[in-house]
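TA notes. Do not distribute before section.
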Amino acid sequence: MKLLTKYYRANILATLVVVVLSSVCYYFLIHHVLIEQLDDALEVEEQEVIEYVKQNSVLPAPSSYEDQAVNFKEASGKGMQRTFRTISFFNHEDKAHLATRQLIFPIEVKGKIYNVFVLRSQEETDELVRLILIITVLIILLLLIILFLINRFMLQRLWEPFNSTLRHLKQFNLSGKYELQAQKTSINEFRELNDAVSIMTIKVNKEYDALKNLTEIASHEMQTPLAIINSKLDLLIQGENINEKQMEQLQAIYNALDRLSRLNKSLLLLAKIENNQFNLSVNISLDTVLREKLQQLEELSGNKSQVIYADIHPVNIKGNEELLDILVSNLLNNAIRYNLEGGTISVSLKDNLLVISNTSPLPALDENKIFLRFYRHAGTKPEGSGLGLSIVKQICHDAGYILRYFYREERHEFTVQF
């Protein structure tokens, strides 16, 4: 859940709860105040009746007006206790029961006790309360709409610098020389965040560049001593005074040196790919490259009595011819190297999809590790550099190709979607 969404929900829920509770309290408070005012009006009538009895020693005549009435009834005992209450009074003119506020109090006239009933219509009070309630509900709805609009638009604008920084961070790519372009903002917290992220990206880029340069320089510098060692070994092997045991040791050294040389070249190639030193916008006839590569590898596959099935259709793509040659070579070399004696290799190219599959004694490979550098299956021999599939993965990543691995019907399958 997004932060703004969570904030919206919490804010609106809290506002709704507070406003509803406040409205309920406000309703009862207003209702109480208006009833108090109504009771005050009834007490005024009470005082008028008492004053009239004091002055005249008789009860005033019963009265009945549109919204008020005063009646008297002789009590059989001490009279009723003074009290206020709300009753339903039938109005003959309107032919309806109306809410009425009533004050009952006893009064003594010439030794007799009378109960006085003072009634006043409560309809205006209730109507006023209902009107206030409607206005309150409308204010609540208006407040919620305003809050929603503020949260939806104003807060989104306030958070836009943060979202912009987040989008730039998602696009950040070390190999792409990406420089963070932070959006200007007047909010201190977002300014501090942008400054911190900018400093971090500069440091990361510098450290990454230093590491790449070190790898590239080291690989270049290793070429010369490797070439010297290789030439000296050639001279030693051609010597006349070398026995068979020494020859075997020299051959082992020669093989290890050859592997080290290939490893160095692979690391240098990876450094060049990561440094974007290849033009990836050249138009290439992929089917031509694939046919040439298959023709070159026929002799190698023939040594293992392997059968290659090819279904190649014309496909033109954009890329780099050297990298594409390396990609195809690495996939085909793996299909040959890790195949069965007398196994099969299938190569299919159509609709911008290259599929290379082969039989193999190896079980399914770990999809999470297969493209990692120097990863080897436990059942393979350390013949290669361990970087072949890593190079393929890096080429596909930089060129925008989609590389996938499958294990189907005891066959290892690699697909490249161009």
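Switch to the second chain here.
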Amino acid sequence: MAVKIRMRRAGAKNDTSFRVAACDSRCPRNGKSLELLGWYDPKKKGANYKLDLDRIDYWVSKGAQMSETVQSIVKKAKKAVK
């Protein structure tokens, strides 16, 4: 089973937000996820994300692959923590 850390779409039409989740790579975008790891709201100003970096590091250490978008958000979050 290949695990991917990717974004799930949430919210209403024209008011989308996203959940960052660890999912089986064979599941659809909004399908069942193994664990929710945070959220991202592109319309919000300032800090528009919240991630559980410890759990993301755990999943990556177990071999999970991050999508490009999640990778950029994680990079920004790690820079803000330092």
